[in-house]
TrEMBL record:
One example GO MF annotation: lipid-A 4'-kinase activity
EC numbers on record: 2.7.1.130
Gene name linked to the record: lpxK1
Protein name: Tetraacyldisaccharide 4'-kinase
Class of enzymatic activity (EC top level): transferase
Superkingdom field: Bacteria
Swiss-Prot/TrEMBL keywords: Kinase, Transferase
Amino acid sequence: MPDADAVIITEKDAVKFSDGICTDNVWVLPVCAIIEPDLAAFVLERLEDVPKAV
């Protein structure tokens, strides 16, 4: 990426850049997931059917 004017990555991917890669032109953006209430309810309902680990 030495030829790039700027590189945009997520916070999750920024962890991978901590191994000596030049980060002068890297911009890190946070990610915030917004889960629809119906989806959250669906997932929680499905999880109730999953057997619990002993």
